[in-house]
Write a structure and sequence with these properties.
By secondary structure, this protein is an alpha/beta fold. The chain has one domain (30-209): Rossmann fold (3-Layer(aba) Sandwich). Helices cover 46% and strands 11% of the residues. It contains 8 helices and 5 strands; from the N terminus they run αβααβαβααβαβα. The chain has helices at 2-15, 39-42, 52-63, 79-93, 104-108, 113-129, 147-164, 195-206; strands at residues 31-37, 67-71, 97-101, 133-137, 168-169. It has a 5-stranded parallel beta sheet, with helices on both faces. Strand 4 (133-137), helix 7 (147-164) and strand 5 (168-169) form a beta-alpha-beta unit. Helix 1 runs parallel beside helix 6, helix 1 (2-15) crosses helix 7 (147-164) and helix 6 (113-129) packs parallel to helix 7.
Length: 211
Amino acid sequence: MQCAIGCLLMLCAFVAPAQTAPAPSPAGAAKTVLVMGDSLSAGYGMSADQGWVGLLERRLQREAPGWRVVNGSISGETSAGGASRIVQAVVRERPAVVVIALGANDGLRGLPLAEARRNLARMIGASQHVGAQVLLVGMRMPPNLGTEYTRGFEANYRLLADTFDVPLLPFLLEPIATDRANFQDDNLHPTVEAQAKILDHVWPALRPLLR
């Protein structure tokens, strides 16, 4: 564990040598929440505005005027894919907040935990480098992958949150995971009806960052 922390701290110094403020927005321009996720955030099996990120856009209009959402989520995305896109995304969007909700596809493919940590660390570091606040959203794996892997997978998110001093929402699907009725026929992707529950779960962790 000490070695893992040390490696992450060195990576922090490499990807985010100094936190810079976001570029000033034109008067009246909305601040941006950038969501970098996979199919769980892209709204797989439904129109984009029905997913929890689409619902977030409408909630922001009501409860946090002056904010907008850019959904950079892609179905099938991995942490490696997110890491490869993050620099271009934050430079283009200049977000004030970045929500990183990746890892599910890494776990299902058995990606080595150290690789997943490096990828997510790069995403957090790049986001902080442009002055964005980060909300890290975790995922959990089924027990059939083995106790050591599933525990280590969960611990990855805690280690990253502690190292980079960012808030952590431990499990995106927490409020719906135990009820099969909340999932589509593939038993992996939440239904349209479950999206509001996911947003209600994310909102308390995200709301304090919208300053």
